[in-house]
Amino acid sequence: MDCRSRLRSRSAVTEPTGRDKAAAAKAAPAVQAVTIDSFIAELAAFRAAASETLGGVAGAAGLEQARIEFLGARSGRLKAIQKLLSGLASADRPAGGRHFNEAKGAVNALFAAVQDTLAGAGAGSAAAADAIDVTLPGEPLRLGHVHPITQTIRRVQEIMARLGFESVDGPEVEDQWHNFEALAIPAEHPARDPLDNFYLAVARGADPLLLRSQTSTVQIRVMENRRPPLRIVSLGRVYRPDTADATHYPMFHQVEGLLIEPGTTMAHLKSVLRQLASSFLGGDVHVRFRPSFFPFTEPSVEFDMEWGGRWIEMGGAGMVDPAVLAAVGYDPEEVSGFAFGLGVERIAARRYGVADIRDFYRNDVRFLRQF
Ligand code: DAH
């Protein structure tokens, strides 16, 4: 049934009966008599029409239009039905009022529900804008990594391990014996000058402690505790009171190598250094020796590596001095070996093309991220 057309043909409930007409003629203004049944039917039709109209409402404008039509205070349909109340027999009026209020409440609730739904749809689309789009590329995780100096240390340890050299550590706070004396650096040697070392204020009487100035100390510590044959490599920090510039820093790292085996010669030394250089820098790197002097090696050399068409100074080396072997209790007549030392920052700077070693210590992630 078409509820709307039924509702519009109000005559069905408003058509006055003959008896009512007579009553109306007496009481002015005339009130149309309405039976309770037709009043209830009118309310039911009103509810059905409102429900159908609201079901088709698509937006706020449509809802407002429907509100005016059904609930409008001046000429809405509910208002028209309300006017019929006074046409009910007085005995039916309380029941009529109840039915009226019930219908009014129901249609109001229906309006509120539709209004909520429309508002919810708006909020829903705003929420959709905030929602996660799983098809977008993810935010890259910022992964940290090992510092280039540590990478270099690990790489050298790896290369040396393949040549049979075991990695060992030694203390950074050293005594005179291990940093100088056992390495044949006597008391009057300029290398022991207080201006060239970080002596500690907590000196042990005549034997002041210092931050080690070289990793050669580890040669002594290992030889004191072990018997040959030995192949060790030690990488770690050393300290010297140098003013920081592009090639100096008061703290830096060294690689120390030591091999003690029967029949060792300078040729073995050169082979090991060439292997290390070729593996670390890549390609076939040539090594050359220049005569030099170190208190703890005899003969002593400084060694250069040819890389990128240039000869680059890398470090010092030589055959372990008999005085050093004797200092650790070895018999220099029986054992011999070689030692070498080079700077970690120097080889890292060469390999990575870093012009200023201070960049390694500035903690600038833009620099460090490149390695
Ligand atoms: N310790 C030396 C330095 O700091 C480097 C060095 C030279 C180490 C010769 C050695 C070596 O083992 O044989 O300058």
Features:
14 helices; BirA Bifunctional Protein, domain 2; binds 3,4-dihydroxyphenylalanine; disordered N terminus; 2 domains; 371 residues; alpha+beta; 3-stranded antiparallel beta sheet; 7-stranded mixed beta sheet
Biggest sheet statistics: 7 strands, mixed
The domain tally reads 2
**Coarse morphology:** rod-shaped
In round numbers, the mean pLDDT is 89
CATH class of the largest domain: Alpha Beta
What small molecules does the structure contain? 3,4-dihydroxyphenylalanine
Structural class determined from secondary elements: alpha+beta
Distance between the termini: 81 Å
Strand content: 15-25%
- Low-confidence runs: 1-17
CATH topology of the largest domain: BirA Bifunctional Protein, domain 2
CATH level-two architecture of the largest domain: 2-Layer Sandwich
Number of strands: 10
List the helices and strands and how they pair.
Elements: H1 3-8, H2 11-14, H3 18-26, H4 36-55, H5 60-71, H6 77-84, H7 93-130, H8 148-162, E1 166-167, E2 173-174, H9 176-179, E3 198-199, E4 210-211, H10 217-225, E5 230-239, E6 251-260, H11 266-281, E7 286-294, E8 297-307, E9 310-320, H12 322-327, E10 337-343, H13 344-352, H14 365-368
Parallel strand pairs: 1-5
Antiparallel strand pairs: 2-4, 3-4, 5-6, 6-10, 7-8, 8-9, 9-10
Helix pairs in contact: 4-6, 4-7, 5-7, 8-11, 8-13
Structural features, described:
The longest helix is centred in the N-terminal third of the chain and has 38 residues, at 93-130. Strand 7 (286-294) and strand 8 form a beta hairpin. This protein folds into 2 domains: 3-130; 148-368, Bira Bifunctional Protein, Domain 2 (BirA Bifunctional Protein, domain 2, 2-Layer Sandwich), CATH 3.30.930.10. It is built from 14 helices and 10 strands. It is of the alpha+beta class. The structure holds 3,4-dihydroxyphenylalanine.
